[in-house]
Write a structure and sequence with these properties.
- By secondary structure, the chain is of the alpha/beta class.
- The chain starts with 17 loop residues before the first helix and ends in a 6-residue tail after the last helix.
- The longest helix has 18 residues.
- Helix 3 links the parallel strand 1 and strand 2.
- It is built from 17 helices and ten strands.
- The strands form three sheets. Strands 1-2-3-4-5-6 form a six-stranded parallel β-sheet.
- The structure holds iron/sulfur cluster (2 copies).
- One iron/sulfur cluster binds next to helix 1.
- The site of one iron/sulfur cluster has 12 residues, from helix 12, helix 13 and helix 14.
Length: 408
């Protein structure tokens, strides 16, 4: 990732941690100069051992650099690119500066844009405000319209926080249907009240709660897996499936899509796919620091113990290093296990993952029939071990009595 404007941004989102980084460089004007850009481009390309290289431009707000900066960056990429190497560019933006000129340039040079959008107007504007405290939804949507108009490829990056976490389907359907997103990434907002160093597990009021995050992902997954598989890509869902079933490795977990796939560890040794010894050491440290509760956890393969920055809880045994969102991750990855296995089985048979929609529809229909046939005193078909009349049969009667939904 390159941050040519450092942490500088034209917005001032309430949960932003980049803005604070500007204090690390009190005398900087936060603009990467030409000499550094050239040096970086040359070194970065020379360090690669893979045939496709991605420059990931990030901020703060990287569009603050202006168009000429990126024209220069592309010229330098062309100058230092050895024959046979493909160079891709990805850029993460808040979208408020996107206009026709930017979008023509981005389309022409095949940039992949990551756009920050937290959901419909009220949910987005809850924390994403400019420096004057004004809402930004209108400006982001204008930027998004320009991306669409010029055919620029984009992903949506949505943060999950106290304001939108209880509205999973509203957020997902808005991003899918109104924003037209095909690639979506959800990022949990976890802000520690005491900063990063202490042992206090308190988090800010803006932070998503662990169980709430699990419910958020689960609700979206249930809609996605019954209608959108193969058409909408949600990074968290892809990672759970990808790592389990076929060993594909992606350049960056922000951009899990075919274009950014580095390769497959079955065809190329993993060591040739990753960039550097430091990256390997980071990955190994991430695993080595896991508490016993994670090491013996059934969903470790998908969760990996979560982001190290959020491992500030203690396990039931008092061991340090448990992920703050553990409860949510465990609930979510457990919930998706069965559909994910169905999907992986389809892929192993050389069929499309989207077939899972049919498999689940068959299962749902079969389950409805079992419920419809269930005797009052027979065991409940849900497998609870209780009599039907004391379990789902009772719920069905209650719903019927309320006049809402008598069918289970
Ligand atoms: S747009 Fe991004 S960098 Fe700018 S204030 Fe918001 S979160 Fe921070
Ligand atoms: S779900 Fe919890 S226990 Fe399991 S790997 Fe993730 S953080 Fe660790």
């Amino acid at each position: 990732m390159v941050k040519p404007a450092g942490g500088e941004c034209n917005l001032s989102c309430a949960y932003c941690y980049y803005l604070a980084k500007t204090h690390l460089y009190p005398h900087s004007r936060f603009r990467m100069d030409e000499a550094l850009l050239e040096d970086f481009t040359r070194q970065y390309i020379a360090a690669q051992r893979v045939p496709e290289v991605t420059f990931a431009w990030q901020g703060g707000e990287p569009l603050l650099m202006g168009l000429p900066f990126y024209e220069r960056a592309l010229a330098l990429q062309r100058r230092y690119r050895p024959a046979g190497m493909r160079i891709a560019n990805a850029l993460q933006t808040n979208g408020t500066l996107l206009d026709a000129a930017w979008c023509r340039f981005l389309r022409q040079h095949d940039f992949l844009i990551g756009l920050s959008l937290d959901g419909p107007r009220e949910l987005h504007d809850a924390y994403r405000r400019d420096r004057a405290g004004r809402p930004t939804f209108e400006r982001v949507m204008a930027g998004l319209a320009a991306l669409h108009e010029h055919g620029v490829a984009f992903n949506i990056l949505a943060t999950v926080h106290a304001a939108n976490a209880e509205h999973p389907l509203e957020v997902y359907r808005f991003l899918r249907d109104e924003a037209g997103a095909r690639f979506i990434q959800f990022i949990p907002i976890v802000e520690r009240s005491t900063g990063n160093g202490g042992t206090d597990a308190a988090v800010s009021s803006r932070s998503v709660r662990p169980a709430q995050y699990g419910r958020f992902l689960t609700a979206i997954f249930d809609e996605w897996v019954r209608r959108d598989v193969g058409e909408v890509f949600v990074q968290t869902f892809d990672m759970a499936l990808v790592l389990e079933h076929n060993g594909d490795l992606y350049a960056c977990d922000h951009f899990v899509e075919p274009r950014y796939r580095l390769g497959n560890i079955a065809q190329t040794p993993l060591v040739e796919l990753v960039g550097s010894a430091q990256q390997r050491a980071f990955g190994e440290a991430k695993r080595a620091a896991l508490p016993q509760q994670c090491r013996s956890c059934a969903v470790l393969f998908a969760c990996h113990g979560g982001c190290p920055k959020d491992r500030f809880l203690r396990t039931a045994d008092g061991e340090a290093g448990l992920q703050y969102l553990c409860e949510g991750y465990r609930a979510f990855f457990t919930h998706v296990d069965h559909p994910m296995r169905l999907m992986a089985a389809e892929l192993r048979q050389g069929r499309h993952a989207r077939n899972v929609i049919l498999r689940l529809a068959e299962e749902d229909a079969e389950r409805s029939q079992r419920w419809a046939r269930a005797e009052r005193n027979a065991p409940c078909p849900c497998g609870s071990g209780r009599k039907f009349k004391h379990c789902h049969g009772r719920i069905g009667r209650m719903r019927g009595a309320e006049g809402t939904d008598a069918a289970i």
